[in-house]
Fold:
Amino acid sequence: MKTFFDCIACFVRQSLDSVRMTTPDEAIHEQLLREVLRTLGEMDMHLSPPAMAQRIHRLIRKMTGRDDPYRSVKDRFNRLALDVYPELEARVERSANPLETAVRLTIAGNVIDMGVNSQLTDEQVHEAIDHALNATFEANLAAFGEATSNAGDILYLADNAGEIVFDRLLIEQLSPGKVTVAVKGSPIINDATIEDAEATGLTELVKVVDNGSDAPGTILDDCSDAFRRRFDEADLVIAKGQGNYETLSEVGRDIFFILKAKCPVIARDLDCAVGSLVLRRSGAKETIEGDSHTTR
Structure:
């Protein structure tokens, strides 16, 4: 997916949010903003938004000398997700349709996105859970269920710290033995890394690998050779979150995208309302989405 003009303001907002979170030094804030504006003026709009975000956050890390500026935020949401996990797991177990409930709750976790909302509160996470469980979600999950049942080797591309705890609910429905989870190769915003997978116990459930990249998505040309081989060899790919959709929506292979449409650009590209719960298969017309403005 290319970068749209509407993304520019979001890049500037995200840059300021991030550098202010990292350091109180206004001289660094100004230096970063000037560099970001210069870079935006020269960027190739045919590149995906995560390609630009990668450059911005590399600048932030370089200017502040902090390798993982969002570490405390990631730790906080890992703890929050682990606290609510037992109740969510019980909801799945009690559900008349465990797969659907697991998908809904997995999407709820996609709200933990500091690139979109750097001021996210615990209350907003709980609201996202309630919304995901009650929003209209009119579709047949048969295609997803059949594809995941038939696949012997599933590659699950994770998104954010904290969110990966929600992902466990779906992974457990898919049979963990045939799932490999991929996290980022090094810190970028609040995306999950191996450290987060270990802290949340995900490495005890499934095999976890890193993709060798620090982009907030999956830019295949920027990933390691080992990950690209893993990506090509998997029977099925499940890609979580907006960044993975932005970077892989035009890749010619079988991918299920699972996300919450959190911005107008993504919603327009997906032809859904902002706030919708989305499960979409690449290259297929079949879409499963929930309207955020109605409940069942």
Remarks:
- The chain is about 50% helix and 10% strand.
- Residues 6-64 form a domain with the Helicase, Ruva Protein; domain 3 fold (CATH 1.10.8).
